[in-house]
Design a protein that fits this description.
By secondary structure, the chain is α/β, with parallel strands linked by helices. The chain folds into two domains: 51 residues, Spermidine synthase, tetramerisation domain (Spermidine Synthase, Chain: A, domain 2, Roll), CATH 2.30.140; 215 residues, Vaccinia Virus protein VP39 (Rossmann fold). Helices cover 26% and strands 31% of the residues. The protein is built from nine helices and twelve strands. The strands form two sheets. A seven-stranded mixed beta sheet has the order 8-7-6-9-10-12-11, sandwiched between helices. A five-stranded antiparallel beta sheet has the order 1-2-3-4-5, covered by helices on one side. The longest helix has 15 residues.
């Protein structure tokens, strides 16, 4: 019998693909966790029925959520990743030699342990890395207790439902602002410009009312809703669209380049309508 996995992307659209076998299913205190082996996309991490990442396109998402803000800041030494239980964002963060401390805060230990076991190729280099400090706790709580600490904060959260819902609020963005130092900036994944237009407009308004610089950029991530994904940057000083000399990575990338950095902020008109700058 054929087995298929289906994600309900909105009330009228579903995304489905064939599954070869189920590697893991479990339920943590926060969400249902599955790791599947699919025919086309390879291993697939799913949380509460929503596709989180696959080896087919994870490099696009993780490079774009990390390297765009990291290469916007001239010298990010202290960095925080909230969420990102698969380890991909922290993996990319630690590739930057300027990073001295990399805090990783995730509320769900089961996600991290599941990914270590079933997706080790994504995060094996994090084991024993002296720069990385993993804390299993609520990212909102961590923000409220952190003042002026970070150069860059990367909010690699799940969708704005369940455990991730409170990470898309004005209050959270204000707490992130307070956790950044005077030259700090943050980035957050902010969903699809086709399916989540009202959410993106609200986030742009909330972030724009707090941060002197607010920017929206996009990347194509095939397994995410509509295939086009948005990211939002809030910055106290550095404008990602005005980086005079974009530094080329001194490590291997598959998606990010200085040219891609500039191009991702060139928004089609239908996306440009979602921002007010």
């Amino acid at each position: 019998m054929e087995l298929w996995v289906t994600e309900q992307q909105n009330d009228d659209v579903r995304f489905t693909c064939r599954v070869k076998k189920t590697l893991f299913t479990g339920k943590s205190d926060y969400q249902e966790i599955s790791v599947l082996e699919t025919d086309y996309f390879g291993k697939m991490l799913i949380l509460d029925g929503v596709i989180q990442t696959t080896p087919f396109d994870e490099f696009i998402y993780h490079e774009m959520i990390v390297h765009v803000p990291m290469f916007t800041h001239p010298s990010p030494k202290k960095v925080l990743v909230i969420g990102g239980g698969d380890g991909g964002s922290m993996r990319e963060t630690t590739k930057h030699s300027c990073v001295e401390e990399a805090d990783w805060v995730d509320i769900d230990a089961m996600v991290i342990e599941t990914c270590k076991k079933y997706l080790p190729e994504w995060n094996h280099m994090l084991e024993g890395n002296p720069k990385v400090r993993l804390k299993i706790e609520d990212g909102i709580k961590h923000m409220r207790e952190s003042k002026g600490l970070y150069d860059v904060i990367i909010v690699d959260c799940s969708d704005p439902v369940g455990p991730g819902e409170q990470l898309f609020t004005y209050e959270f963005y204000r707490d992130v602002y307070e956790a950044l130092n005077d030259e700090g900036l943050f980035v957050q994944q902010t969903e699809s410009p086709f399916y989540h237009r009202d959410l993106i407009r609200r986030i742009q308004k909330d972030v724009g009312s707090i941060y002197p610089i607010t920017r929206l950029y996009t990347a194509n991530v095939p397994t995410y809703p509509s295939g086009l994904h948005c990211f939002t940057i809030g910055s106290k000083k550095y404008d990602p669209m005005a980086v005079e000399e974009r530094r080329a990575p001194d490590f291997e990338t598959r998606c990010y380049t200085p040219e891609v950095h500039g191009a991702c902020f060139v928004l089609p008109k239908y996306v440009r309508e979602l921002v007010d700058y």
